[in-house]
Amino acid sequence: MTSQEMQQAPVSGSDLATVLETRRSTMPDMLVAPGPSEAELDRLLTIALRVPDHGRLAPWRIILIEGESKARWIEQLLTLAETREDAAKSRISTRKLASAPLIAAVISSPTPGHKVPEWEQELSAGALTMNLLNGAAVLGYGANWLTGWHAYDPRATELLNLAPGEKVAGVVLIGTIAERATERDRTTQDRVVSRLEI
Ligand SMILES: Cc1cc2nc3c(=O)[nH]c(=O)nc-3n(C[C@H](O)[C@H](O)[C@H](O)COP(=O)(O)O)c2cc1C
């Protein structure tokens, strides 16, 4: 087995816990081709959509961006980047979208005025996005959850044809891991976990 095959070997059973315990986002430039096959993508999307969803509203959708459409999207973003006040920074962050073979834009698409508060509907979109990261890791791929100006500048979100009220929850880069990122500082359980004592 080559190192790439080993990296992409799917995991199962107790290995799954190890994958989730050690999952680390991959730097955008270190996500390279090949991306998931059609069969793997189908599994990844199945994992992503298996998400708690109060009221069964499906208040999200996923836009897959790859191949020539991805190249054209980046081209259009680069044109927009030049018109922004922070052009240099915007250009750099846009170029970071180029390496990963697959991008999944997760769109929060809440139903306004529903008895399920919009906050809960948006949380479900966040959970779906996290499922994508964990699903990619379990299938042996790397991923990175970004937003950046592409997610907030209305001229950029227009390129994704967002409907009124929709928001970009994440621009998730997915691909083969060329190089694993070193571990980052993480908070500790004792800082953020407490027990209710009443
Ligand atoms: C909602 C959201 C948006 C993010 N947007 C960006 C971003 O635009 N640029 C960036 O460098 N990191 C962004 N990050 C952080 C990356 O996902 C980062 O690589 C990650 O937090 C690393 O931690 P991990 O290894 O535990 O996944 C974002 C994270 C979240 C949750």
Task: Give a quick rundown of the structure.
By secondary structure, the chain is an alpha+beta fold. Helix content is 43%, strand content 16%. Helix 3 (38-49) packs antiparallel against helix 6 (118-138).
Could you characterize what this model shows?
Its cofactor is FMN. InterPro entries: NAD(P)H_nitroreductase, Nitroreductase, Nitroreductase-like, YdjA-like. Pfam families: Nitroreductase. This is Putative NAD(P)H nitroreductase. Strands 1, 2, 3, 4 and 5 form a five-stranded antiparallel β-sheet that branches. The mean pLDDT is 94. The longest helix is centred in the middle third of the chain and has 21 residues, at 118-138. This protein has 198 residues and is of the alpha+beta class. The protein has one domain: NADH Oxidase (3-Layer(aba) Sandwich), CATH 3.40.109.10. It contains nine helices and five strands, in the order H-H-E-H-E-H-H-E-H-E-H-H-E-H. Flavin mononucleotide binds next to strand 4.
